[in-house]
Amino acid sequence: MNIFRFAGDLSHVFAIIILLLKIWKTRSCAGISGKSQILFAIVYLTRYLDLFTTYVSLYNSVMKVLFLATSGATVYLMYVKFKATYDHNHDSLRIEFLLIPCALLSLVINHEFTVMEVLWTFSIYLESVAILPQLFLVSKTGEAESITSHYLFALGSYRALYLLNWVYRYMVESHYDLIAIFAGVVQTILYCDFFYLYITKVLKGKKLQLPA
């Protein structure tokens, strides 16, 4: 554990809190990609299966349970409780084009060809592109509510901080994981355009708009 990983985890939790509060308070999931939330749920399910077999620390276990529970709750709110407010028309990116390549890549490039390791690797690859349906939805609608923008910024910050975590671990512990680093770089790059618009528009009180 180091300050960058801890800050990344806090940013991740903050993003989830923002999302759930947005949905619950407005009683609507308008502007939120249900497909991205399904992908994130799959990420946590495949990554945290070791919750039942491996104990690392109380902190680690609590975070795993938190991510599993909140991802399930988000999918429930979007597809069951507030289903009528979900924008199916704009949330149209075909997620099989993300799932299948990630699954195939995890079978080919992994640290060890075991079930748990392949599933972990799959979750790392999938997380790097899981935000694409959300960004695609925002680009199709042309804009995003401020609260949705805050959610995306917190989520992107989590991944950027984790990259700093890997730099720190390499410098201090001489430890690195090329799969996690590569996926983290890809995910951060996907957020770059959004980060720029967030800083230049949202933080100045303007509505975030993306080219359709």
UniProtKB/TrEMBL annotation:
It holds the Pfam family ER_lumen_recept. GO terms for biological process: protein retention in ER lumen; protein transport; vesicle-mediated transport. Keywords: Endoplasmic reticulum, ER-Golgi transport, Membrane, Protein transport, Receptor, Transmembrane, Transmembrane helix, Transport. The keyword Membrane applies. Belongs to the ERD2 family. This is ER lumen protein-retaining receptor. It comes from Drosophila grimshawi (Hawaiian fruit fly). Signal peptide: none annotated. PROSITE patterns: ER_LUMEN_RECEPTOR_1, ER_LUMEN_RECEPTOR_2. It is a multi-pass membrane protein. The keyword Protein transport applies. It is found in: Endoplasmic reticulum membrane. One of its GO terms (molecular function) is ER retention sequence binding. The chain crosses the membrane at residues 62-80, 92-113, 119-139, 151-172, 178-199. InterPro entries: ER_ret_rcpt (IPR000133). One of its GO terms (cellular component) is endoplasmic reticulum membrane.
